[in-house]
Amino acid sequence: MDLEVRHLRTVATVASLGSITKAAAALGIAQPALSAQLSRIDRALGGPVFVRDHRGVRPTPLGMLVLDRASTLLPAVDALLQDARRVASGDPAPTLRVTSAGSALAGRFVARLARGGATPPTLRAAGECCRAADELSAGAHDVVLAGMCGDALPPGTPGVHWRLVGTDAVHVLVRDDHACGDEADLAELAGERWVKGAGDSCFAACFLRACARAGFAPPTPSECDRATGLELVRAGAAVALAQPFGALPQGVRPVALRGAPLTWSTWLGVHDDAPEGLRTRLLAAARDARRDELAGLAARRRDGSETAAGRDARPAV
């Protein structure tokens, strides 16, 4: 038996549900038929993809390999089918597919691309830059906007062309009534509990090295999504390491770190075969989005300074 795309979808479904019974129901086939199909897949691959125990099924090392490859191949096949149907129907204007990996600039970037009545791109988030680059190379996306530690470089994935959008100083988000000013040395925050975004490449190690140079050893930073991190900051339970992009909720303000001990780079990845005109348009939109966000950050800091000055100028009562 030759391995087919439908077999990869079957393996992915079983792995995600962890149960033959649940997977059979999701796939709309009988459980014995699914078990027989998995046996044929095992024979085609030369070994078992799953092992069963009292908790259900879990992938073997062979199964993990198949799932890893399927996670790149299936989105690429779906993209192929989508594009083929578009061309067959005579639609000349495909929707640009944007993937964000560790960049808080993605929302502004997509908004920039949608200006002037252009069709808004689709946007999805990827947990890892390497995986997003592999999927871009396979044709599952048109562009990847990736964020990573300022000292890091994007993956050298064959078929992917990277351009630097910009490198910026990381700032710290604190509760509005925090004792530190709008600018602080990293050492001034030595006693804080820290939180950072999940999956931020080597950023945790870079942060710990910066703290060591500043003369202290912080607790290991917590990792969570942006919304949860902002809630922790607003509650006064932590301070957050953050890119200088994205709107902030009321009660949270940014603090610049003197000397910029930590930096964050934004990279734009496109396929090598992308037309030069598209590359130029994408890079311009990304750099314009970055410029807009940095201007907004500067304005928020000015407004915050004016508000603080107004409070200090009030007479005592």
Automatic annotation (TrEMBL):
Pfam family, one: HTH_1
InterPro entries in the record: LysR_HTH_N, LysR_subst-bd, WH-like_DNA-bd_sf, WH_DNA-bd_sf
Top-rank taxon: Bacteria
Region (Disordered): 297-317
Family under the similarity heading: Belongs to the LysR transcriptional regulatory family.
Keywords from the UniProt entry: DNA-binding, Transcription, Transcription regulation
Name listed for the protein in its UniProt record: DNA-binding transcriptional LysR family regulator
Matches recorded under PROSITE patterns: HTH_LYSR (PS50931)
PANTHER family, per the entry: SMALL NEUTRAL PROTEASE REGULATORY PROTEIN, TRANSCRIPTIONAL DUAL REGULATOR HCAR-RELATED
Domain HTH lysR-type residue range list: 1-60
Lineage: Bacteria, Bacillati, Actinomycetota, Actinomycetes, Micrococcales
GO function term, MF aspect, one: DNA binding
